[in-house]
Amino acid sequence: MSLKESIVEGAALEWFGELGYALEHGPRLAPGEPAAERDSFAEVVLVGRLRAAIRRLNPAIPEEAREEALRKVLRVGTPSLAQTNRAFHHMLRDGVPVEYPRRDGSIAGDHVRLVDFGDAGANDWLAVNQFTVIEGQHKRRPDIVIFLNGLPLGLIELKNPADEEATIWSAYAQLQTYKAEIPSLLHYNAVLVVSDGLQARIGSLTATQEWFKVWRAIDGQAGLPTEAPKSALELEVLVRGVFERQRFLELLQHFIVFEEDADSGALHKIIAGYHQFHAVNAAVQETLRASGMSESRVFREDRGTYWAGRMHGGEPGDRRAGVVWHTQGSGKSLSMLFFAAKIIRERAMRNPTLVVLTDRNDLDDQLFGQFQRCADILGQTPVQAANRETLRELLAVASGGVVFTTIQKFLPEKGQTMPGLSERRNVIVITDEAHRSQYDLIDGLARHLRDALPNASFIGFTGTPIEKTDANTRAIFGDYISIYDIQRAVADKATVPIYYESRISRLALNAAALPTLDEEFDEITEAEEPTQKERLKSRWAALEALVGDSRRIALIAADLVAHFEKRLEAMDGKAMVVCMSRRIAVDLYDALITLRPDWASASDDEMEAERGKTCVVKVVMTGSADDGPDWQPHIRSKNKRRKLANRFKDSRDPFRIAIVRDMWLTGFDAPCLHTMYADKPMQGHGLMQAIARVNRVFRDKPGGLVVDYLGLADPLKRAVANYTENGGTGEATVDTAQAIAVMLEKHGIACDMLHRFSWDKWTTGTAAERLALLPAGQEHILEQEDGKQRWLQLVSELSRAFALCAASDEATAIRDDVSFFQALHAALNKQGGGSRPAPDQIDAAVRQLVSKAITPAGQIIDVFTAAGLPKPDISILSDQFLAEVRGLRHKNVAAELLEKLLKGELKVRFRRNLVQSQLFSEKLKKTLNTYHNRAISTMQVLEELITLARELAAATRRGQDLGLSDDEVAFYDALAANESAVLAMGDEKLKVIAAELIGKVRQSVSIDWTLRESARARIRVLVKRILNKHGYPPDLQAEAVKTVLAQAELLSEAWAGA
């Protein structure tokens, strides 16, 4: 472990110490040590500590039952790592179920507590660094493991901040290795943390890279949460913000959930983000205040783009718990789930009844599905009221229950008032999107709610702000208790920015014929196609006829096909087309299929026919048997639509374009969706919610795009104005002109870097001529100061900007240039000296345009061919090969290639020889530093590298010259590292000592000797005896012993596997 990495580790341990954790060095707890707490390195639970905690926390439960609980914890394994982790989490949160006989002979059922969630001081807190685990043939040593009552709940992997290649994502890759090689440690894991000292992220056992998130909030004085200052280290904020002992207990108990997909069976573990954690805590306190069930304590954060705290003007018992405004895509449904789970467990609420309210059936289904998939955190099964009678039955209970319904089910019978259903104060109405026009206290549905549940408390969750003029919503729910806006969500990478592109002009229609929109149409778009709003029917029909004109649909279809095909070239993903009516949706589908017959949708029973296609289009809509025969193929049952939704969410599925009217516009998460084609009048929060479908995080997706075919610019401006008035920061949408400007700026810089270099042959030349451009282009870049790193960064930024506006005329004009720039980027990355691609680049959404530019499909060009060298069948260190490298035309490329090859040779040839590995690594590093600092010419560095290669080849033959095996040479080099020892003793004597050391040390080491200090001490004494026996100079012994031990440690794994 490097010094720099040890500094990060040491700092983290200091912070844990300040938080009240005991600190231990892993080797001290190892088997065989005086302070050992493990019988073997396969043990990941500190059993003594866990047994003591179980005894301390469960004094009334018999010893036999406590031991049975301990055995259940230690044997928690199931076939799946994620399932095992879920099973253990239930034990951790709810206790371990046990049975034992009472004195009267009856059987008692109970739960053994593993943790005291109410009193942090009653638990055993320990942070251990360098905790070695051996499982099967694998030995791994995580940097820091956090133990709670002997259970390894936290795992922190650190990387060196000074090493360009050691990033948080290489730490993430290390965690994936742990999951594969030492899964037993992960059985008990609650949270994973990666950091390089500068950046830090927290994630779950099943989280992919994009779901490892920053944690920005820590506690200030008097327990009041405050946001960390911008200058604070991310790792320190995360450690103090997550692992403060009482807060960590709260995270474990209330803010970890497992979601299982009913169709695929996939299990995902989800940890709340910092904004959800603090918002839910504020919401719980305000609900206790509003219900009058408990006196709330102040829970506040600095106001701004993110805060959570006491509601302005809230009074005890006023039944207004407030509004949580978290921007779309930032996990609002999960926040509602976490809130429901925590308020249910609040003793002061005395087993409350929760009514989860939406204003549309499809929203009710979506939110109910979320709760149903995560029902274990609720401790009960949520139920959905199918009709008014069922709703009244579900609410006419003494306590408990999580009931999902739509607000329309609170309508009374005609001419009657809504009967009272419950007068309890512990009824909580949780409303999704708490700013609809239906919430009217005078004659609207909200009044009927109050009639039915006169003492219930109301809390609202919304992804868009309440309008300033909306007095009704504030009268029912109160004011904001938490805000998490667009700017903060994008900065946290909880969402991606949304870009806006108007393509009305592309349709070549008469401007006078364009549909006009006004505020009145908001009433239409809030509901389905109007049935009750008679006065608007004729206007809707006239607009629908204009929008659905066959000529206009044909123009849109042609433009959409060309646009989306260019989008797919630059970025993997999917599109949603929003139409004004079902007729238009079906007509547009037909127009698209006329242009691209292979995009046609197969019947639901013939899905196999779609496999292998690049793109499939489907209409997603409701309907009945009364609809015409042309519509019937697009009408599906609720269950079939659910399966279709799962297919659309799967980035690998060819179902790439969904045509909708109202469905999937709210509450629908498809992270791979990156483009929305809007051809429907929308206003206000309905518009903001619809466009947010494209803002979900997916791999390295740089942003979502809304393409406007109808004229939504003015409604967007009005919606954004309301957003800003409510204190929101950040742009709701960004004009694609900005992405185009960035793209052109980066393109201009790239052209400047290639000044006086012509790449015209990239588009006009033969395959051989195009290929020859790569080494020549590399040479041109490498000749410039820091040229390689500047080019790699520049082209990455250019590629992201290009992906956002790939269908624009400006992007089309420079497409071939971008293709060449990306090819040069890839070639430079393959050569030596550059940083390895991060995992997010390996599994990227942003596509490269070069895949077909150089070679036929399936043909792979390696770095040797690109550099103009035959791929060597002989040693790369041979004189023949080195002569060919020296003769290369492009000297910078030759130097880069030789650097790469030498690094590879060092890893292979000297992986078991510590001294030689360090010697040649230092020589190579020194040479390259001199070169990169431009202190020597390219020709000079090439000659030095060739000289180093020859020295390396000679060093590999030393064993033959000395008559020693490779292992003996390694020990000989360890003894001969000090030139004074060589002069004093001579080669022959050192060869004898090396041979004896290899025999005695190999006989004496055990598989775990490097992990136990007592075993290391025994080997140290053995080495000293052999050196004394042969008269090795005493003043040089200390350093020699240290080097010999390090060499023995390097060889011991190979010996163990022999």
Structural summary, described in words:
With 1058 residues, the protein is of the alpha/beta class. Helix content is 46%, strand content 13%. It has 38 helices and 29 strands. It has an 8-stranded mixed beta sheet, with helices on both faces. The chain has a 7-stranded parallel beta sheet with strand order 25-26-24-27-28-23-29, sandwiched between helices. Strand 2 and strand 3 (107-112) form a beta hairpin.
Mean pLDDT: 81
Got a strand count? 29
Structural class by helix and strand composition:
alpha/beta
Largest sheet, in brief, is: 8 strands, mixed
In short:
Helix content is 46%, strand content 13%. It is of the alpha/beta class and 1058 residues long. The protein is flat and about 110 Å long.
Descriptive terms for the model:
alpha/beta, single chain, 38 helices, 8-stranded mixed sheet, Rossmann fold, 7-stranded parallel sheet, 6 domains
Describe the SSE topology.
Layout: H1 3-18, E1 22-25, H2 47-57, H3 63-74, H4 81-94, E2 96-101, E3 107-112, E4 125-129, E5 133-135, E6 138-140, E7 144-148, E8 151-158, H5 168-181, H6 183-186, E9 191-195, E10 200-203, E11 217-219, E12 225-227, H7 234-243, H8 245-254, E13 256-260, E14 267-271, H9 274-291, E15 306-308, E16 320-326, H10 332-345, E17 353-358, H11 361-373, E18 383-384, H12 388-395, E19 402-406, E20 427-432, H13 445-452, E21 457-462, H14 471-477, E22 480-484, H15 486-491, E23 498-502, H16 522-525, H17 534-547, H18 550-570, E24 574-579, H19 582-595, E25 616-620, H20 638-649, E26 655-660, E27 673-679, H21 684-691, E28 704-708, H22 713-725, E29 734-735, H23 736-753, H24 761-764, H25 767-782, H26 787-804, H27 809-830, H28 839-842, H29 863-867, H30 879-886, H31 891-909, H32 914-932, H33 938-956, H34 958-962, H35 966-975, H36 979-1004, H37 1013-1029, H38 1034-1057
Parallel strand pairs: 1-4, 8-9, 16-21, 16-22, 17-19, 17-20, 18-19, 20-21, 23-28, 23-29, 24-26, 24-27, 25-26, 27-28
Antiparallel strand pairs: 2-3, 4-7, 5-6, 7-8, 9-10, 11-12, 13-14, 15-22
